[in-house]
Specification:
- The chain has five helices and no strands.
- The chain is mainly α.
- Helix 1 packs antiparallel against helix 2 and helix 2 packs across helix 5.
- 63% of the residues lie in helices and 0% in strands.
- It is globular and about 35 Å long.
- It has one domain: Flavinator of succinate dehydrogenase (DNA polymerase, domain 1).
């Protein structure tokens, strides 16, 4: 899988905007991590989870990638259940390939 597989059809404006942003980050690795998660889960996230996911999406790619790979320690304010969902989703995909 190398690109967006979910249509934004049926999503509210907030979710459409976030889905697009997750697939157009700047670093391809982050497109794949954030974009794949968004494809799979954007429609089911609660409003509070969307808040956390939007905060993650606002972090610079190099920091976020370091957090996901374990290169950098995740600051407490970003070590949320949503961060752990994205991280775990990414690692499950990595293990299955």
């Amino acid at each position: 899988m190398s690109g967006m597989t979910r249509s934004s059809e049926g999503l509210d404006r907030r979710r459409r905007k976030l889905l697009f942003h997750c697939w157009h980050r700047g670093i391809r690795e982050m497109d794949l991590i954030m974009g794949r998660f968004a494809d799979a889960h954007i429609g089911a996230l609660s409003a509070a989870e969307l808040d956390d996911f939007e905060e993650l999406a606002a972090v610079a790619d190099h920091k976020l990638l370091g957090w996901f790979t374990g290169e950098f320690e995740v600051p407490a304010e970003y070590d949320t259940p949503v961060f752990r969902k994205v991280r775990d989703f990414h690692w499950r995909l990595q293990e299955s390939t």
